[in-house]
Amino acid sequence: ITESTNRGDIALTLGGDHSIGMGSMLATKQRHAGACIVYIDAHPDCSNPEETLTGNLHGMPLSTALGDALHAEFGGPHYNYDEVIILGAKDMDDHEVRYMQAKGIRYITMDEITEQGVAHAFTTARELVGERPLHVALDIDSIDVSEAPGTGIINQGGLSYREVSYLCRKLSELNIVAVDVVEVNPARDEEGKTVQLGIELAVSLLGGEWSRYMRYLESH
Fold this sequence. Notes:
alpha/beta, 37% helix, six-stranded parallel β-sheet
């Protein structure tokens, strides 16, 4: 990942559980001192070894990128708290909420997206990021189970296809230097539905289009 960022390429990381983001996000920060993160996830992943309810490392990547977890394993440079925004948060542990509020980390819940619209979520993210280098971390479990059944923790009431595809298209207008697409589990998928969606969203974030309609045109 570091080699890709050093060449100036956009680093695309495909997971796997979200613990892979510990390496990818820190690699981005090493290359781009002013980098920001837009973290699209149902879970804020701000836990730590002392308070985790599950013991899962994939619940700690964001707190690790911020320098507040797994210090011995992952050094800096780390992100500042005002360089991160979480979109689509829904299933949050109490200690994660306390942590985000204490540190002033901006997060937009699914309830807020329902009430204020997905355009408001994007506008808020754009205002935070500006023209700075951007690392987008997209966890497929941020998306409703009706669209993304092939993942570890399915999400009832998550982002719709319309909402997440809009977010990815609009975020592609910003200065993206790295993209993670994680938590796609083909073994739990239904007829490749989640895999295809993951590909489409990754391509959208990179500024391209790989929709069902485009695939239809290519087949004729």
